[in-house]
Amino acid sequence: MISIVILGTGNVAKHLFDAFLAVDQVKILQVVGRSQKQLLEFSKFTEVTTGFQQIKEADIYLIAVSDDAIGEVSGRLANNKGVVVHTSGSYPMDSMLAIERRGVFYPLQSFTKGKKVDFRKIPICLEATLQKDYLLLDHLAHLISDQVFHITSEQRKTIHLAAVFVNNFTNHLYKIGNDLCTEQHIPFELLQPLITETADKINTLNPHEAQTGPAKRGDITTIENHLGLLKNKTQKEIYSLLSNSIKKDYEQEL
Amino acid sequence: MISIVILGTGNVAKHLFDAFLAVDQVKILQVVGRSQKQLLEFSKFTEVTTGFQQIKEADIYLIAVSDDAIGEVSGRLANNKGVVVHTSGSYPMDSMLAIERRGVFYPLQSFTKGKKVDFRKIPICLEATLQKDYLLLDHLAHLISDQVFHITSEQRKTIHLAAVFVNNFTNHLYKIGNDLCTEQHIPFELLQPLITETADKINTLNPHEAQTGPAKRGDITTIENHLGLLKNKTQKEIYSLLSNSIKKDYEQEL
């Protein structure tokens, strides 16, 4: 049985809480948060507290708070005995200076409130200073996911950066697609099967092979027609920059 | 029974062929192509020809060739009696000047050779000059898809442009994510659940609501760290431009 305390009440905290709650070999001793209101939904299943003085002894402390708050929260755990891990993509492990037994337990997914995810498919990126702690985290991670990886803080930085490209920026392209459709009274739903297929395709092809479109073909006429259609200056800039970047990738092959 | 002739042997032609082959109410009389070799896989199921002189009389002629070739191919069909439609996202219907009974039958999807798609979910965008032809196309489209839309040539231009953003450009962002991972010896598979979830999310949230990340939060520290990590000049430009574009969207709300 692994005992854990979760610090934080946001999306990551809630999704991890739900995943661990479903596992017999894990006991969630406590959830720690700043707001009684946010703690309410956890209190049906375990103990909750707003006070750092009341924190229980546990095997693992999971910090699931915003990056800005990790330093302070981890500092408060300096006298506890268990391993202290944060769940952030970009915060370096060694920045939790006050903690000797420190680690990272980073689930690589974008969580949305109220939207269930299949945790077994979510990659969990692990790191720890001590090998025995790494093994404990590895054991814990495998209880909820089939995708567990050893990732250094340096690699994690790159993963987080790559995630910004494939998640945040991709979503922004969807947003531009949505705006263009709205202007012409076209339901955005029309684009959804294409969006799904685009994401699905790279399970079987690598993105370089999967590329299609006017920029890849070097179809200047279509590119100019598209730029002519775009009224918004930023959209034009994005169209040009991404088209040129695609063109460059395929010109190199000639 | 609707009789059709398909002109073209590429991905769109092949996927439409497969979809119509599975429908009792459609008879594919012929597939017309330039290369005997490409026609081979169709010849097991229907007649094939490389000669425009041998084209049969049909209710509908489906042109599934590259945009550059639509003008020439449609011109050769000027003396046939059926409705002539092309399947392109960007080619205006009225550019098929020689054809009186003209229309568009545009399946909005990115087809990959050998990768099956569920045609019932693929939006089909229809247009025709004559109402009776529109009704025929509408009937034909519903035989293979549940998503049939009347879309003008003007709207279709915008859809095609929006598709470049959500498909071609999105795939390019995946490619950058892949490159970043490769440099740091991180398996790209780690990002795939995130990519799937990002695409899936906009089935329930609109992309504006679904946006997350440092640019939306105005988290300058993370943005600067990311720009510091990027070595490639074009990747830096893409990161800055997209981050600024996201920032602008959310600043307007303050």
What low-confidence regions of chain A span 5 or more consecutive residues with pLDDT below 50? none
State the order of secondary-structure elements of chain A, H for helix, E for strand.
EHEHEEHEEEHEHHHHHH
The largest pleated sheet of chain A is described as: 8 strands, mixed
How far is the N terminus from the C terminus of chain A?
59 Å
Number of helices of chain A: 10
Sum up the overall morphology of chain A in one term: elongated
What's this entry about, in short?
By secondary structure, chain A is an alpha/beta fold.
Q: What does this 3D model show about the protein?
A:
The structure is a homodimer of 254-residue chains. In chain A, strand 7, helix 4 and strand 8 (148-150) form a beta-alpha-beta unit. The mean pLDDT of chain A is 95. Chain A has helices at 11-21, 36-43, 67-76, 131-144, 153-183, 192-201, 207-210, 214-217, 220-229, 233-251; strands spanning 2-7, 26-32, 47-49, 60-63, 83-86, 102-107, 124-128, 148-150. An 8-stranded mixed sheet of chain A has the order 3-2-1-4-5-6-7-8, sandwiched between helices. Chain A is an alpha/beta fold. Helix content of chain A is 48%, strand content 15%. Chain A is built from 10 helices and 8 strands.
Fold topology:
The structure is a homodimer of 254-residue chains.
Chain A: E1 2-7, H1 11-21, E2 26-32, H2 36-43, E3 47-49, E4 60-63, H3 67-76, E5 83-86, E6 102-107, E7 124-128, H4 131-144, E8 148-150, H5 153-183, H6 192-201, H7 207-210, H8 214-217, H9 220-229, H10 233-251
Parallel strand pairs in A: 1-2, 1-4, 2-3, 4-5, 5-6, 7-8
Antiparallel strand pairs in A: 6-7
